[in-house]
Structure formats: C-alpha cells, structure tokens
Design brief:
- The chain is of the alpha+beta class.
- The protein has 3 helices and 18 strands.
Length: about 280
C-alpha cells in the first residue's frame, strides 16, 4: 500500500527535529549534573576553599544564529549585580577624593580587627579612569568612606549581597539581585542598637557547638560604639549563631545579628570574604 504523502513529510520533520535537539541535549549534560560580638582570643580562623569563578554563557551548537541583543542584555544583568572586591596586601591610605593630593581620611588595614585575617574589601564604586576605588573604612567610627588606589591590587568579585532589615528583624540574601532566602535574626537592643551601615565580611570563624556564638561567626567590618556597661566581648560586629534561639527575631543583642544554626548552614557557602552586608532600618 502506498504511504500517504503527509506521512513522508512528517518523517522528514521529525528527523530534522531530532538532529537539532541532540546537540542541545549533549551540551546540557553536566550542566544539571548570649555573646553578640566576636571575642578577643588567639585562634586560627577557618580556612575557606577558593570559590570557583562563574562559568561563561554556553550556547548550544544547533546551527541557529544566537540573538546578539539577548546576549548583551544577559551580560548587562551580570555586570549590574557584580560586586568588585580587592585583596589588601598592606595598610592602604584612603583619600577624600580619587586623587593623590586629596586629604587623607583614614586607612584600610591589611588584617581584620581581632583575628588578623587578610582583608578583602568591597569596592562600592570604581572611578571613571578605573584607578581608584571607594570603600567603607573598616572598624572606624563615625563611619566614613575613602578612595584607595587599585593599581597592583588583586581583584575578585561576588554576586552575593546580604541585607539586614532592623525594623523587621530579617536577614535577606540575594544573588544577581534575586532573593535566595530570607531568615529571621536578632538585632541590637534599644540601649545598644545595631549601627546602620554598609559593611563587608572580614572573618569566618568556627566555634564549638552550643557556644554563645553558635557554631560559626561571620565578622564584618563595622564596630559597635554603644556597648552595654561592663561589656568585655570586643566591639566588632558580626553575624553569628546563638545558644538562645528564642532571642531570634527580637531586639536583644549588643549589636550583632544572631541567626539560627540552619541559617548558618545556608550562609556558609555564600558569605565569602568581602561579601557586602547592608544594615538599614
């Protein structure tokens, strides 16, 4: 019996479709494959394995010409949410303006306040000529920012940012501007409120399970100027765990942000050195 013509046409269409989809599938294989501050103590901070740099965009080899406008839009989106970081090998002077003859406003230290971990600073703005970066000066009060020379500094980047909303007692972690997760946190009490500011992660320190700081603390580049009377735990701000989970979601700390152990587990692979931490009301 003679096969209808439309059957032959259908067979040809299916053959072409399989030919196009097979390389796409091959390219996708593998792609889916009660203390509130860090105390002063002599201990080694946790070593953190290097975070792999994000891979570029891979286009399936289908023979179809890619849409150049789509690629440009994707690249712009990546750039918009990329935070520039720099490794600080030595104490760097900071200036009021991106000029060597400008007034000095402070320094960026090479090591963190209590643990001496090499500083990786978040560069909030890069000058038009690319030679200078605006950074928040670590561990200073009143808070201030300054311009540092970028020449010779090793650069890095992260697409992750932490947002701490004091009024809602909420910690929000974003990547590419999208919310990865939200979690409640305890914040500073009325007598020792958490200072507002733009900070970055300077320390990653493990602690014994059940300690007042929980099992881990992320020291950040800010300090608490209004410590409770008789406080002996240091003045560096941090995001850390707690052995008092009932305090989470309330204004009870000396200024640090307390989170649960489950939240710490989610933060550990995300908060690398230099990760921005924005604290607002």
């Amino acid at each position: 019996m003679r096969r209808p013509a439309y059957h032959s046409k259908l067979a040809i269409v299916l053959t072409l479709a399989v030919g196009l989809l097979t390389p796409m599938a091959a390219n996708m294989v593998g792609a889916n494959a009660g203390a509130s501050h860090i105390p002063v103590r002599a201990s080694l901070a946790a070593t953190v394995p290097p975070v792999p740099r994000p891979r570029g965009f891979a286009l399936p080899e289908t023979g179809i010409r890619p849409d150049p406008f789509r690629i440009v839009r994707a690249a712009a989106r990546v750039g918009r949410w990329t935070n520039v970081l720099v490794h600080v090998p030595r104490t760097l002077p900071a200036y009021a303006r991106p000029r060597a003859d400008a007034a000095r406003v402070g320094v960026v230290p090479s090591g963190s306040k209590y643990y001496g971990i090499p500083i990786v600073a978040w560069v909030e703005t890069v000058s038009a000529d690319g030679r200078w970066g605006l950074v928040e000066l670590p561990y200073t009060w009143p808070r201030r920012e300054g311009w540092i020379r970028l020449r010779g500094l090793t650069r890095d980047e992260t697409r992750v940012q932490v947002d701490v909303d004091l009024s809602r007692h909420m910690v929000t972690v974003r990547k590419f501007g999208n919310v990865l997760f939200r979690a409640p946190g305890a914040t500073g009490s009325s007598s020792s409120p958490t200072p507002l500011g733009e900070y970055f992660v300077t320390d990653r320190v493990p602690f014994s399970a059940g300690s007042a700081l929980g099992s881990f603390a992320f020291g950040i580049s800010g300090i608490q100027p209004r410590l409770p009377a008789g406080w002996l735990g240091g003045n560096q701000l941090a995001i850390h765990g707690t052995n008092s989970p009932s305090s989470i979601g309330r204004s009870v700390s000396a200024g640090c942000i307390r989170v649960s152990e489950s939240t710490l587990d989610r933060l550990l692979p995300l908060l690398r050195y230099g990760t921005p931490v924005i604290v607002h009301a």
